[in-house]
Design goal:
Elements (H helix, E strand, L loop, with lengths): L1 H17 L3 H8 L3 H10 L2 H4 L5 E6 L1 H5 L3 H9 L1 H9 L2 E3 L10 E4 L5 E5 L5 E2 L2 E10 L2 E6 L8
């Protein structure tokens, strides 16, 4: 019995060690370096490492590259605006691709994203290019464009 308990404890520890939150999952993917930098600059890393659950529409480095450098640098330097933009990419709860429905979706930022389903799933003007990257505190859906909240 003791051996069974030790084995179960070791297995639980191994599984726990492998679990990654949304931030760690995004960083390990390698295509979200700018997003990780932006989350750090906005002070949102601890939030997205929290219990959640969260659904994150994560722009790739290529998506951030579509923003002119001077504009991106200004955004990264403006913590309030950066926080508004980043939280506009986050929805409370864990919404898997199979559960996505067309229509407005309330973001953590407070404004709605518009989700369109059809030949492609769109979030505002961004195309969802990969879905259901599961983290232990939510899910990431990859988008090809940074979406900006209405001002």
């Amino acid at each position: 019995m003791k051996k069974l308990f030790v084995t179960a404890a070791l297995l639980a520890a191994a599984v726990g060690a492998q679990a990654k939150d949304i931030v760690d999952t995004a960083v390990s993917a390698g295509q979200f370096k700018t997003l990780a930098t932006a989350l750090q600059a906005a002070g949102l890393v601890d939030t997205l490492k929290g219990p959640g659950p969260f659904t994150v529409f994560a722009p790739t480095d290529e998506a951030f590259a579509k923003i002119p450098k001077a504009q991106l640098d200004a955004l990264l330097a403006d913590k309030a605006k950066l926080t508004a933009v980043l939280t506009y990419h986050v929805v409370a709860g864990k919404v898997m691709a199979a559960d996505v429905k067309a229509g407005p979706v309330k973001t953590v930022q407070g404004k709605d994203l518009t989700v369109a389903t059809g030949p492609a799933v769109m979030v505002n003007n961004a195309k969802v290019v990969k879905t259901d990257i599961v983290a232990d505190n939510g899910v990431i859906h990859v988008i090809d464009t940074v979406v900006l909240p209405p001002m």
